[in-house]
Amino acid sequence: MVEARNLRPGMNFLMSVAVIGAMIINEWVEAGVVVFLFALAQWLEARSMDKARRSINSLMEKSPRNARIIDGQEFKEVPVEQVQVGDRVGVRPGEKIPVDGIVLEGDSYVDQSAITGESVPVKKGIDDNVYAGTLNKNGYLAVRTERIAQQSTYAKIIHLVTEAQSKKAPNQAFIEKFSLYYTPVVMILAFCVAVFPPLIMGEPFVEWFYRALVMLVIACPCALVISTPVTIVSALTSAMEKGVLIKGGMFLENFAKMNLIAFDKTGTLTEGNLRVQEIISTGSMTDAEILRIAATLESRSEHPIAAAITTYAVENNIVLAQIDNFLALDGKGIKGTVAGRTFYAGNHKLFEEKGWCNEKMHRLLERVEDARHTAVLVGSADNGVVGIISVNDTIRQRSAETVTSLRRNGLKQVVMLTGDNHRTAESVAKTVGVDEFYSELLPQDKVSVIDNLKEKGYRVAMVGDGVNDAPSLAAADIGIAMGTGSSDAALDTADIVLMNNDLALLPYLHHLSQKSLHIIKQNISIALGLKFIFLALAIPGLATLWMAVFADMGASLMVIFNGMRTRR
Length: 568
Prior knowledge:
Blueprint: H1 2-5, H2 11-24, H3 28-62, E1 66-71, E2 74-79, E3 88-91, E4 100-105, E5 108-111, H4 113-116, E6 122-124, E7 129-130, E8 135-136, E9 141-147, H5 153-166, H6 170-201, H7 205-218, H8 222-226, H9 229-241, E10 244-246, H10 249-255, E11 260-264, H11 265-269, E12 275-281, H12 287-298, H13 304-315, E13 323-329, E14 333-338, E15 341-346, H14 348-354, H15 359-370, E16 374-380, E17 384-392, H16 399-408, E18 413-417, H17 422-432, E19 436-438, H18 443-455, E20 460-464, H19 470-475, E21 478-481, H20 488-493, E22 496-498, H21 505-538, H22 545-563
Parallel strand pairs: 11-18, 11-20, 18-19, 20-21, 21-22
Antiparallel strand pairs: 1-2, 3-9, 4-7, 4-9, 5-6, 5-8, 10-22, 12-17, 13-14, 14-15, 15-16, 16-17
């Protein structure tokens, strides 16, 4: 009745009319068969869809409920929502870690499959990051809380997965719109079949009324409506189990249409675990003084290079100074006041703009770049460049294999975008095997490159991990972030997240999106094909009510089982 009042007849309304109509003309057996088959179809449909959604819903059940706060020598168990940033939490072997935090005490192996999809436990010790929802396997851990429960990585995943189910894919939106017109049109046609032949040609009313009832059953849009969502939910679930978080069906569908993929270099094609190789003093400052200033400045930055410099300072027992007036210089470096003097740390471009690079400096930079290292310059207005810190990164083990596989999958072009110097970028590009690379780019330059590629007709996917990648992820047709190590800005901006940082999942993801799109088209063809066949059979009286219901049920089950092939 609700469907009738809203003038949007659905399957319940259509089946009810068909059953009542069959009883009016004394087709009691047919009416009973229709009711039975319809109920059976609904039950099978519900069970199949529930199976597709079960993995996603199980996320909610795995969410930790309580935490054990360390209070002096005692433990106090509280709901996880009451744990605050800075609280120390104890986690025993076999328990789920309740919060995102840093290990203060103990070491253990942690099963992170709930976050990354990776089933092999990861060793965790002091100063390592751990995540809510992961399982502590064999040792006791004391963890300092870094995020409240509502802001944990696990909570974000649950929120994004829930949102993803509500975002309609392009094909789903089209089918739902098509169904709004299809059902009323067939109902009008059924009315014409029931009324006009008896009135105009004197045909038997009961016979044509029965044919009209068959057409009403055929008008039921259920197989058509579920043809897309069952495939999308199944594919999203399959991807999530492998550690790929897709934020909606539209991104799954659209990724299949990409013909160019652009990679950031640091932390994406490379490990992002940079190491300081050399400190070069260009003036009167010692290496330790240069490192102290650089590490003090970099302590406020999230960039992987900053982490490398601060880690190196800690390893060499360098005590950081007080910093004031810190400012990030977008894509170029940073500046701040240390011991009353303003210092800068950044790339070659920043210091060229300042006019502090002379011939000697260029020769030193060439030496660093010839070694395929990245140069971080340190300087001030009164002394110019005081030193150069050389850092190096290692290429991810499967980067070259990933690029080859993507090209084999049909992607026309693979490019690399980086803010690093030309020589280092060229070396990485050759090793990995990208078609083209762009070096010494600021964040806004990466956006311009992506916009230019789109103007040339490319559909661009961008893969990155840092704060400075967020604008280019947003500018691309599809933005892909590199998992738990990515900045919050990159994770929030991205459409797809590789939770375990495994680039080798990109070819799988591209294949999954292509397969899903192919299955969706198959499902639409199956649903519409059966509808039109039985419509053609109904008008001359070659189809019965139970045959129409059986066909509708069969079409629904066919599209469900076909859609669930994305799980294989």
